[in-house]
Amino acid sequence: PMGYVNASSSTAFPSKWQRIAVAAAGMYGELFVAAIAAIWWAKVEPGTLSAALHQVVVLSSMTTVLFNANPLMRFDGYYILSDLLDIPNLYGKGQSVNRWLLRRWLLGMKKAKFPLRPGEHVWLIGIYGLASGIWRCFVTIGLLFAAAYLFEGIGLALTAIAVLSMI
Fold first, then answer.
1. C-alpha count within 13 angstroms, C-beta hemisphere, residue 114
2. pLDDT in tens for each of the 167 residues of the chain?
3. CA separation for the pair 148, 33 (Å, rounded)
């Protein structure tokens, strides 16, 4: 029910600290809402309002930490990390290192061209690429299991279609 702000124009800010402040502002706002809801939740009697406040606390805090603040997904935490490390397009570079590793080790293409330029943070980008790839697999598998469980028969069909399309 809160307003949406397109903060993508903040990428033009000259200072990385200004960009980081804008990226963190949404998370601060959500955590503030969660804190206010937690205070109210502690003071009200059990019932419908208490259950609603509980949901606000969980959704405003846990989802912010697991998704928005998580640097392994391309949300606010990713842009903050990218600015802190001064590595633009960290995700894209990390995924190109993943593709290079798969070609080289899995497919045996020993002459595959390394995707990064000399002087780039190879280990840092490589570790980030592997970690974000693993996280993406966990999230995808979790969503597929959730769909299969929550939607029963049609969920299994949707999961099978999704798995086949990914293959």
1. 9
2. 456 677 888 889 999 999 999 999 989 999 999 999 999 999 999 999 999 999 999 999 998 888 899 999 999 999 999 999 999 999 999 999 999 999 999 899 999 899 999 989 999 999 999 999 999 999 989 988 998 889 988 988 888 898 899 88
3. 32
Q: Could you give the 3-state DSSP secondary structure of residue 65?
A: helix
N-term to C-term CA, the chain: 37
DSSP 19-50: HHHHHHHHHHHHHHHHHHHHHHHHHSPSSHHH
> What backbone torsions phi and psi does residue 4 show, to the nearest 5 degrees?
-105, 140
CA distance 27 to 79: 13
Residue 103: DSSP 8-state: I
How far apart CA 52 and CA 47 sit, in angstroms, is: 9
List helix spans (H) across 44-104.
Answer: 48-63, 76-85, 90-101
